[in-house]
Amino acid sequence: MPTVIALDAMGTDRAPKPEIEGAIQAARHDDIHVLLVGREAQLQEELASHPAAADLPISIINATEVVGMRDKAAQAMRAKRDSSMRVGLRLVRERRADGFVTAGNTGAAMATAKVALGTLPGVDRPGLAAVFPTATGSAAIMIDVGANVDCKPHNLEQFAVMGEVYFRSIFSKPRPRVGLLSIGEEETKGNELTFQAFHLLKALPINFVGNVEGRDLYNGNADVIVCDGFVGNVALKVSEGVAQTVRYMLKESLKSTIASQVGSLLARNAFKAFKRRLDYSEYGGAPLLGVKGACIVCHGSSNANAIKNALRVAAECARAGITRKIEHELAQIRHHAVLTHTT
Amino acid sequence: MPTVIALDAMGTDRAPKPEIEGAIQAARHDDIHVLLVGREAQLQEELASHPAAADLPISIINATEVVGMRDKAAQAMRAKRDSSMRVGLRLVRERRADGFVTAGNTGAAMATAKVALGTLPGVDRPGLAAVFPTATGSAAIMIDVGANVDCKPHNLEQFAVMGEVYFRSIFSKPRPRVGLLSIGEEETKGNELTFQAFHLLKALPINFVGNVEGRDLYNGNADVIVCDGFVGNVALKVSEGVAQTVRYMLKESLKSTIASQVGSLLARNAFKAFKRRLDYSEYGGAPLLGVKGACIVCHGSSNANAIKNALRVAAECARAGITRKIEHELAQIRHHAVLTHTT
Fold first, then answer.
1. Which of A62, A101, B177, B184 is the 20 to 30 A CA-CA neighbour of B98?
2. Confidence of residue B257 (pLDDT cuts 50, 70, 90)
């Protein structure tokens, strides 16, 4: 039986085109039944323009409202009860879908998921994990990048557990290396939050490699990088800024001489390969960990490929039982903590 | 009369070579009298290998100890009373030098400067400002990157004033745009620290442009970016990591085909120009603002050009009276705050 994933079909900047194309690819290749959630008439019309999709496991679920990129998270959640986001998440809650994907407003998606699905026992704050490529070719994740600001040490502890389970399950690595983002490798380097979190992470039954620094995000020194959501958000956006600036400067420099222009033409395939290596869309968006259901949040600028991969990852999360595993691990840790405390 | 700058000649990874070459260039071109501080015999020998330097205003001041890169800041400060760092800073304190440059251990330099020079009235924590190029071609600075963790709102307020004075004076821009590093442009986005700091910065007589995001570091949207030292350190090291990874991936991609290799050769000059644009050494290191004296801290891997530029910037700081200006601005703000409070 195919895994059923609800897809917010109104989320991307060019919705519902990338959503429908991504859904077709996922339904064709990944054994996924996609529930397209959005304005029914619009979705039917768009879907009809893909005759080959007629036989694929794709259904349309009507939702009359759309959460805009400028909507405030809390307001969107309260006011738009029939939004594609809300309806899609409700399908997961009612067990009519095994997972949910959206490329809509990240803040609204997180807030709505928390309310519509609820958080897992033992989770104080769900965490959003960014997935990105490293220089070694393998992926790494950073959690939290979902604006959980002013975190307490136990929030970081929970992020570590959730990120570890996710990485282990989705990237099939038995003992992922978990690092705490700080300002020096030594245990004594950091701030109040990281000092306390360091000791909590050290006590976990995970492969904790200690503090890592900003430069370790992309060199493959750690698989799971744990941080407060303010720091994670800054780190992620700084990365985007640097990559953009480097590309821009390189282009400017290449423009400047004829030899460079010829060189640039000859190197075109290399640039394409390079761009592919930096392409986040291969990883299919950011998993929201700690809510009761597999939930993937994509960039608003996602293309069909990113949506397809997000659907695949959501299905993998559902099949691997990520939420159950997270709940189990957190329960064990609490149990262990109680035992340690009482003996 | 030339400006006198004391240079820790034992700071770089390859000391004293880059220091002496940088000192020669600065003494020749920038109307600077350099006091080379370090092991006298070693410096005399190295200097003697540059016969052309004989007529330049370069003196040697003996210091028998060296602070190592692995020395703990507080220990280095207490134990090594005759270190090149300590002796150099003492020259500033005793007004025998107008400024100080070191490429040694950053933590030790900050701690030693605080003790040897003292902090300016109105400054609770001196701030280290990183200077870097933006896509627009102009420079920007970020303060603090000197590991002032767990900052209070008034620390950020002081960083803003000091950074603004520095940028205005050194980059000759009358109304530099000062931004607060946060996770969204809206006033409502951020954490406890930025919420409070926002209001303090808004009340300052500076060109405060509100919150800026990680991606604004390099796009030229702000001249002075204010943040807690933990966040600033992460942002800086993430930047280094991304730039390194992008370069590595591009190289790998270029290696993969013959056409690319030819292209890469033809594009060589463009790559060189590109590298130059990213070259931090043009800006001559990071100013430590808020201590009683012009103080520039360089990277341990600095070359002669970086040292030369740091000497030039230290001299510019001294000539512009940066420390006096900072003291004056902070006094005015305190005066204004008292007036506002009492009326």
1. B177
2. low
